[in-house]
Amino acid sequence: MKKSKAVTSESAMTQSRPDFSDNMKQPNDKESRYCTRCTRALKACLCDYIRRVPHLAPLHILQHPGEVGHPKGTAALLAASLTDVRIHVGEDFSGDEALNALLANPKVQCYLLWPDEDAMTPAQARSHFILLDGTWRKAYRMLHSSPALLGLPRITLGELAGQYSIRKKPFPGALSTLEAGYHLLSQWEGEPERFAPLMTLFTHLNRQWHDFAQGRRR
Polar residues: which segments have biased composition (predicted)? Predict the structure, then answer.
């Protein structure tokens, strides 16, 4: 069910800024079956449930190529729901000039969302946040392929029960990228109610897949 990918597993790319405005619910081109905004098949488009939420800290999503166009992925939905997000696609980000320039900028502090004994809470962090989008094993390889990422201070969300019921979870607290973005920004800005539209969208995604699965079993 995956769309074809133009990005090889060895490359790193900063995705051109998509137009996530409300009027982008349309095919990529006349023959496309996919929405340009939520990147899902038109018959499964979730744009009606996307609400744009402003936030204070820029968010950078480092996405494994295997997640690009994945029908159960949530990174594109998170990006469509927020006002300051960039998606970088690749496995080894040591050659991503834009990302590494940001990480090396002495005036900017970036924080990596990654569970660690010494990780701080979002409330203690400032500036840019970085999320890894991929399976746990792939995210681990992505992290250790990029020395600049390994040196970043880390933040943790604490003990949370993930609700990502449409994909297999490696452990109970594993979160989808959309859930992670919601909890991260909610904890950091202290306004979970403002970010509630992200979880509403996530609920519709899960429900859509469960309805589809039930229909196939009938």
Answer: 1-18
The residue among 209, 201, 172 whose CA lies nearest residue 74 is 201
| Chain mean position to CA 141 | 17
C-alpha span between 64 and 109 (Å, rounded): 23
Inter-residue contact 176 to 164 (CB < 8 Å): yes
**DSSP 8-state assignment for residue 159:** S
- What domains are there in the chain, each with its CATH number? 48-208 (3.40.1280)
Write down the H helix ranges in 118-218. 136-144, 147-150, 177-189, 196-217
Angle at alpha carbon of residue 80, lines to 179 and 138, rounded to 5°:
50
> Which of 10-19, 33-42, 173-182 is the least confident region?
10-19
Q: Dihedral sign, CA of 36, 40, 42, 45?
A: negative
> Tell me: the pLDDT tens digits for 125-148?
778 999 999 988 999 999 999 999
What would the pLDDT profile of 82-124 be if each residue is shown by its tens digit?
Answer: 999 999 999 999 999 999 999 999 999 999 999 888 899 888 7
Which structure tokens are listed for 94? Answer: 């040591």
134 vs 137: CA distance, rounded Å: 8
Query: How far apart are the C-alpha atoms of 50 and 33, rounded to whole Å?
Result: 19
CA distance 122 to 156: 7
| 187 touches 157 (CB < 8 A) | yes
